[in-house]
Each structure stands twice: as structure tokens, then as C-alpha cells.
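Subject: Late embryogenesis abundant protein LEA-2 subgroup domain-containing protein

B.,
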Amino acid sequence: MHAKTDSEVTSLSASSPTRSPRRPAYFVQSPSRDSHDGEKTATSFHSTPVLTSPMGSPPHSHSSSSRFSKINGSKRKGHAGEKQFAMIEEEGLLDDGDREQEALPRRCYVLAFIVGFSLLFAFFSLILYAAAKPQKPKISVKSITFEQLKVQAGQDAGGIGTDMITMNATLRMLYRNTGTFFGVHVTSSPIDLSFSQITIGSGSIKKFYQSRKSQRTVVVNVLGDKIPLYGSGSTLVPPPPPAPIPKPKKKKGPIVIVEPPAPPAPVPMRLNFTVRSRAYVLGKLVQPKFYKRIVCLINFEHKKLSKHIPITNNCTVTSI
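Prediction pasted inline below.
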């Protein structure tokens, strides 16, 4: 081989064009169109080579179409995402509706249980009340004793002169609880002892508890202190003691018999009060009440002072 001359080298370089460095080709990625039935979409890739210009920059038309395809692809992706989000939200709403439908029967069951339990409890309470109501307590007034009864002159609160009575009596009665499964709490209204429509003494029963199927004797003090009588107390004044009968002298003639004065008539009095009994069968929910009104007529005699006066047959006991 022979060596090339400088002229040959210059001619070869002028005849062959200079090669520019090779640039990479551009590819456009476009998604396939979404299906109209909402199913999952698959993205297909189309590789389109973009020719480079001799100067190394892509043509203007190819760059604009690439941007347009990217914008359309992003819009389609946005629509697909919105549809998919709407489907998910709709499924969530359906799930919430199913949960509400499941929770509704539970509430109905709870409400039905409460109503049923209340009706059953009310029915049971009614049975207890009906069973307890006929088991009424029994009260019997035995006697009254007047320890003191004194009438003397005096003045009332207005300064009017009249007879004043002071008395002290003891009332005895027998109380029996006939209840088989409950005890009772016992009180009373004021016990009034009256004479000629004037209350000359009063008292009351101290509250007590009587257990089932048991009895006790109740003692009540009836007191009166300087009660004005306004002219109606003459019969309450004890009669004077009878004067001694002188022995007749022994003379001839008929014998004269002197009779002692007639005893004073009994003084009518009236005793009036109400005994209240209350049972707690089921706490404070079932409380049968038993009221007994008692009226006694008393015939007081001064010779029976400080003695027991039986009044059982003179008393009436009424359920109210």
C-alpha cells in the first residue's frame, strides 16, 4: 500500500459529509379508550418513533401532537378515576344501608324486651296487690279508764267565766295483723273524746310496725286541760256525798223511812278516731292501705272513776 497524499485526504473529507452524533428516538404513550360498561380498563402502549431533524431537534408537529395526546390521556384517566370513585362511594352507601337495616331489628328487640318486662312486672305487682288487699287488720277497742275528771270554775281565753274541765283517761285496744306475707306500719288520726259536741280530751297512737300474723295491745293516753264547757258541764259535776240519815227517836207513832237521793244519770260521751295501716308488699311499688274508722259511745259514771269501763260492745269499726 502506498501512502495517500495531502490532496487526496482533502478531497475525501470534502466529499463525505460530517456525521452528527445520533440522538435517541421519542415514543408517545397513549391509553386505550375506556369501556362504556364501567369495567376495568387496560392501558395499551403504542410506540411511535419521532423522527429527528438533521439538526437534532424533533419537529414542531410531533411535539404538539405528543402534548395533546398526553392531555387527552390525563383527562381520560381523570374520568375513569371519578367513575371508579363513584362506584366505590355507592358501594359504601349500600353497605351503610345494610348496616342500618341490621341495627334496626336489634333496637326493636331491645324495645320489645323492655315493654314485655314492664308488662310482666306490672301484672305481677297487680297480683300481689290483689292478694294483699283482702287481708285487712282487725281492731278491737277493749276498755277506757278515767283516772281523773275534775270540773271547776274558770275563764276562757276571752275572759268569759265558765266551768272548766280537766281530765285524764287511758284507752286500750287490741290490734291484729292478719297479713300472711307482709307487715304493716300503723298510725292514727287524733283520738277525740267529746261531750255535748265539745272535745274535752284528745290523744293519738304512736307510730309502730306490726309484723305478719301477730298482734299487740295498744295503749293511748287521752288528755284534756282546762277545757271550757260554757254552761254544759253541770252533769259532769260529781254529786255531793249523801247526808247521813239521823236515827229516829223512839217515839210512839208511825215509822218514817227516808230514802237516799237517786244516783246521777250516766254522762254520755263519744270517742271518734281513724286507724291508718300501710303495708309495703313490694317496696314502695305495692302499698295497700287499710283505714279503719272507730266510733265508741261511753256512759260515764262518777262511781266508776279509776275503774276499767268495758266498751267493746259499744264500738263500731268501719273500713273506709
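The CA atoms of residues 133 and 288 lie 6 Å apart.

T.
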